[in-house]
Amino acid sequence: MRLADFDALSFDCYGTLIDWEAGIGAVLEPWARERGIDIGVTDLLERYAKAEAHQERQTPAARYPDILASAMRSLGVALGAEVSQADGEHLAGSVGDWPAFPDSQPALAALSARYKLVILSNVDRRSFAGSNARLGVRFDAIVTAQDVGSYKPSPRNFEALLATVRGLGVPEGRLLHVAQSLFHDHVPAKRLGLPTVWIDRRGAEKGWGATPPPSAAVAPDWTFPSMAAFAGACLSPDNG
User: Fold this and answer.
1) What is the CATH classification number for the domain harbouring 31?
2) 101 in helix, strand or coil?
3) Measured between alpha carbons, how far is 124 from 127 in angstroms, rounded to an integer?
4) Spatial separation of the C-alpha atoms in residues 53 and 152, rounded to whole Å
5) Domain boundary pick from 97, 113, 132
6) Are residues 10 and 129 in the same domain?
7) Tag placement on the chain: N or C end, fewer CB within 10 Å?
8) What's the structural domain count of the chain?
9) What is the domain extent for residue 117?
10) Is residue 170 located within the same domain as residue 87?
11) So which residues are the catalytic ones?
12) Residues 65 and 114 in one domain
């Protein structure tokens, strides 16, 4: 396979295009300090990641802001710390404030000249609209957890993605999925036979951060440290 062999790119958004660790951490770190919780941000994010993934499994039809608030309450219980209604609402309403990685917008703009761009995200439409404004790119299609009624890594989300891409007229085998999360994206995508690109945003950082570890061994077809590096490879003359 070559990167030039594809007509469409589907993207996870949070962790890949939007820096959700910075966004979540900006809410959880001050809360933890105020409650006297003495743990590092990586540990805090890893504990939160488990709570969020559990909540998504338990209530797959819930909107993402409700998932965020419920996961924070579960985190508070696990840490023995209060989560007020205002605390939960703060995290639930923060998605639109989460920053884009600096290379996301220029990479997407460049890739849009060659490929159809599709979003497959574990959020609701309203939350994604705020992030889309930060990315400044028109996507050819957007598939959210709200649309599907389940959250990745459910195969239902990827089946919905494939149906959407077929509706765009993309031939079979011409879709490449691009994501940071091995847990949410690469394991289920590879099980359905999708080729994947890992944007390894954490690089040499220890731990898994806001993303749970993968449930099974998985081997992405390509790995890049950033969207800038991925776009550069896709658009290189050597790539055809």
Assistant:
1) 1.10.150.750
2) coil
3) 5
4) 9
5) 97
6) yes
7) C
8) 2
9) 3-19+99-239
10) no
11) 12
12) no
Q: What is the pTM of this model?
A: 0.96
Q: Locate all alpha helices (DSSP H) within 59-182, ordered by sequence.
A: 64-79, 85-92, 104-111, 125-135, 145-148, 155-167
pLDDT in tens, the chain (240 residues): 899 999 999 999 999 999 999 999 999 999 999 999 999 899 999 999 999 999 999 999 999 999 999 999 999 999 999 999 999 999 999 999 999 999 999 999 999 999 999 999 999 999 999 999 999 999 999 999 999 999 999 999 999 999 999 999 999 999 999 999 999 999 999 999 999 999 999 988 888 999 999 999 999 999 999 999 999 999 988 775
- In terms of domains, do 104 and 66 share one? no
Same domain for 24 and 8? no
Cα distances (angstroms) measured from residue 229 to each of 49, 75, 105, 174, 212: 27, 35, 13, 21, 24
Backbone angles phi, psi at 141, to 5 degrees: -160, 150
CATH code where residue 13 lies? 3.40.50.1000
Between CA 231 and CA 225 the distance in angstroms is 11
How many CB atoms neighbour CB 69 within 10 A?
21
Peptide bond between residue 214 and the one before it cis (omega within 30 degrees of 0):
no
Which stretches within 80-237 are classed as H helix? 85-92, 104-111, 125-135, 145-148, 155-167, 187-191, 227-234
